[in-house]
């Protein structure tokens, strides 16, 4: 049995911080690796030791095996923890670590390799009588054969990349007219992302739920499950909300699915943390094997909160050769836990990722609240990595209590400086269907819509808070903030913009107060104090406290009534806007140029892909909005660009 005294973490961000925390508790030396963009990150500061991986692209850094092996040797680490993503499910890397004499903290390489192919995984499950979704999973991958098999299965159906994950190479096809184009697109995307264009076709189960079971094995043949997580609320095949227990599973069905999950693990000789994912139908309580994630999951804190276990510690124990310390009958669920993912993105603009500096990051004190984050005030969100800021986890005695705590947490979270999805998350958990557990994997697409409030009853007060903060800032050197005025009668005004809607805010000094008017509404405002980004006001007799920060012309404001808002100050004498280039296409966000699909002189058709951008692991195609001829191209492949950068021009 090997004793691990030092662990090198081949990952970044919040999961690196999470692993470091358990290492410190166990007295194990933690070693980090970091890219150029991550050199000032929280996980680098927290690690006992850290090594530089030059560059920013994952191929140059966190998945560059040769560079990583060099650092492993240099560090003298006993073991490596891959976290999730990057190299965590790379069987070759797991074998390389063992060959180098370093313990890989994860399942055996054979299990990883088998489950890395959806095709092989499905065959193994069928051999062990695990229920699988009806479909086609054979070697003949010609367009003709795939089309014929799709027609046999019937619509709707799902195309899946055999080597895939994260929604890449995945298409839902609803009718025969779509099938050929969908197969070609799925194969092309799969080849680009995974180097393999093998597809699986499956019957698509409409309004299904995604329920997964946390499994755990040791090197002595022992296997248990640690109950389920409901992960049905998803966007672009990425999970948004996870909770446990599932609001729909009966105890009998829970035990049945858990027993099947353990059978899956035994079929793989599984010996560490993993997750067996199922598709579940509310209609008849049927369920089918989906896949096994051969690593720690992003949402593992949900399981930890209801079981009281430390899954990272269990991973280390298993890697050392220790037998599982608990048996299946010891696994008990206590209360309810849920997790939401706070991202730097604009939910009202198709969830477009955002970059920039987080000026302030603070969370309230709530019993049962747990935050997993690699972010602190002053951290930068770069375009090179996933835009997740934090995982917000709450635990309550009941599901209603957990939802109440989550709502309070989101209302009082201060994450200012970049656009986030905080308001979307708050709106989501207030939704009656979500609160009742009545949802499915397509809920966000078919049964829910989100728009940022622009006429919300609290918007006027938010704008007053920003205007008052500007007023106080201008006059901060005066001894009496609120009594100062340069004219008793002359009115002043500010113009602000939220979601392209402009509002004029009028005000004037009246004694020791400010008289505000917005449209037909009037407000008497007294500024009590403004310091450390906190402005204390009395608005029409009611005391309110707002957090207000600004960067250039944008103000970031937080208050429990509306969460966080981005407010743009409209200059009274705005600079002349850059003229729009006729036929020009601009980048909607900071990004890297992944591919340029056209050349100067090419004729293009409406809807044709011109350029593919990448930002924060998300690919965005720039498509032609009309027919034309490519006149100029202003970017190169692999170039990093800012938002609103002119990409090309079509005549």
Task: List the keywords.
single chain; alpha+beta; Dna Ligase, domain 1; D-amino Acid Aminotransferase, Chain A, domain 1; eight-stranded antiparallel beta sheet; 16 helices; 39 strands
Question: What do you see in this structure?
Answer:
This protein is α+β, with helices and mostly antiparallel strands and 651 residues long. It has five domains: 100 residues, Rossmann fold; 70 residues, Dna Ligase, domain 1 (2-Layer Sandwich), CATH 3.30.1490; 238 residues, 2-Layer Sandwich (D-amino Acid Aminotransferase, Chain A, domain 1), CATH 3.30.470.20; 111 residues, Glycoprotein, Type 4 Pilin; 67 residues, OB fold (Dihydrolipoamide Acetyltransferase, E2P) (Beta Barrel), CATH 2.40.50.100. The chain contains 16 helices and 39 strands. An eight-stranded antiparallel sheet has the order 14-13-10-11-12-15-22-20. Strands 24-25-26-27-28-29-30-31 form an eight-stranded antiparallel beta barrel. The protein has a five-stranded parallel sheet with strand order 3-2-1-4-5. The longest helix has 19 residues. The protein is globular and about 85 Å long. The relative contact order is 0.08.
CATH top level assignment of the largest domain: Alpha Beta
Inertia-based shape? globular
Can you tell me the CATH topology of the largest domain?
Answer: D-amino Acid Aminotransferase, Chain A, domain 1
Global mean pLDDT: 91
Strand adjacency order, main sheet: 14-13-10-11-12-15-22-20
User: What distance separates the N and C termini?
Assistant: 70 Å
Organism: Faecalibacter rhinopitheci
Keywords: ATP-binding, Biotin, Ligase, Nucleotide-binding, Transit peptide
GO molecular function: ATP binding; ligase activity; metal ion binding
Cofactor: biotin
């Amino acid at each position: 049995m090997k004793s691990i005294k030092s662990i090198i973490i081949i990952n970044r961000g919040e999961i690196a911080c999470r692993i470091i925390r358990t290492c410190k508790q166990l007295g194990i030396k933690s070693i980090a690796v970091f890219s150029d963009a991550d050199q000032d990150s929280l996980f680098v500061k927290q690690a006992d030791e850290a090594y530089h991986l030059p560059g920013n692209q994952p191929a140059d850094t966190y998945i560059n095996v040769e560079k990583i092996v060099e650092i492993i040797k240099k560090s003298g680490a006993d073991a490596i923890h891959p976290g999730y993503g990057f190299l965590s499910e790379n069987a070759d890397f797991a074998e390389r670590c063992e060959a180098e004499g370093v313990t890989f903290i994860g399942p055996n390489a054979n299990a990883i390799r088998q489950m890395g192919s959806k095709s092989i995984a499905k065959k193994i499950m069928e051999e062990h009588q695990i229920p699988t979704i009806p479909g086609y999973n054979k070697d003949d991958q010609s367009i003709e054969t795939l089309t014929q098999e799709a027609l046999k299965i019937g619509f709707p159906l799902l195309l899946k990349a055999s080597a895939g994950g994260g929604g890449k190479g995945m298409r839902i096809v609803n009718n025969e007219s779509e099938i050929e184009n969908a197969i070609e697109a799925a194969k092309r995307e799969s080849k680009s992302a995974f180097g393999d264009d093998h597809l699986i076709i499956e019957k698509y189960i409409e309004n299904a739920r995604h329920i997964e079971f946390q499994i755990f094995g040791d090197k002595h043949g022992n296997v248990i499950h640690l109950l389920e997580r409901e992960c049905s609320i998803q966007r672009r095949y990425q999970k948004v909300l996870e909770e446990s227990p599932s609001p729909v599973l009966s105890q009998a069905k829970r035990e049945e699915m858990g027993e099947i999950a353990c059978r899956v693990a035994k079929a793989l000789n599984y010996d560490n943390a993993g997750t067996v994912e199922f598709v579940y139908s509310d209609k008849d309580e049927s369920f089918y094997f989906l896949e096994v994630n051969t690593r720690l999951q992003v949402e593992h804190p949900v399981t930890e909160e209801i079981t009281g276990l430390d899954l990272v510690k269990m991973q280390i124990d298993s890697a050392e050769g220790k037998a599982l310390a608990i048996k299946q009958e010891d696994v008990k669920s206590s209360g309810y836990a849920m997790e939401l993912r706070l991202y730097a993105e604009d939910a009202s603009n198709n969830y477009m990722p955002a970059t920039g500096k987080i000026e302030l990051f603070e969370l309230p004190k709530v019993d049962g609240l747990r935050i997993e984050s690699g972010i602190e005030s002053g951290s930068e969100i770069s375009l090179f990595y996933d835009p997740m800021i934090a995982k917000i986890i709450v635990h309550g005695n009941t599901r209603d209590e957990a939802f109440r705590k989550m709502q309070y947490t989101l209302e009082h979270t201060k994450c200012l400086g970049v656009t986030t999805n905080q308001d979307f998350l708050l709106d989501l958990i207030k939704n009656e269907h979500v609160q009742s557990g009545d949802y499915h994997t397509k809920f966000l697409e078919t049964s829910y819509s989100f728009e940022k409030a622009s006429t919300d009853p609290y918007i006027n007060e938010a704008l007053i808070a920003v205007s008052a903060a500007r007023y106080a800032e201008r006059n901060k050197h005066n001894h009496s903030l609120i009594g100062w005025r340069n004219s008793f009668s002359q009115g002043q005004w500010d113009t602000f913009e939220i979601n392209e809607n402009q509002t004029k805010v009028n005000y004037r000094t009246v004694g020791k107060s400010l008289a505000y008017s917005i449209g037909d509404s009037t407000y008497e405002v007294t500024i009590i104090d403004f310091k450390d980004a906190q402005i204390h006001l009395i608005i029409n007799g009611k005391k309110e406290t707002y957090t207000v920060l600004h960067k250039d012309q944008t103000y970031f404001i937080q208050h429990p009534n509306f969460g966080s808002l981005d407010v743009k100050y409209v200059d009274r004498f705005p600079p002349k806007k850059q003229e729009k280039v006729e036929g020009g296409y601009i980048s909607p966000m900071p990004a890297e140029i992944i591919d340029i699909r056209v050349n100067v002189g090419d004729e293009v058709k409406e809807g044709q892909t011109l350029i593919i951008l990448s930002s924060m692991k998300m690919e965005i195609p720039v498509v032609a909005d009309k027919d034309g001829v490519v006149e100029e191209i202003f970017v190169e492949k692999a170039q990093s660009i800012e938002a609103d950068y002119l990409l090309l021009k079509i005549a």
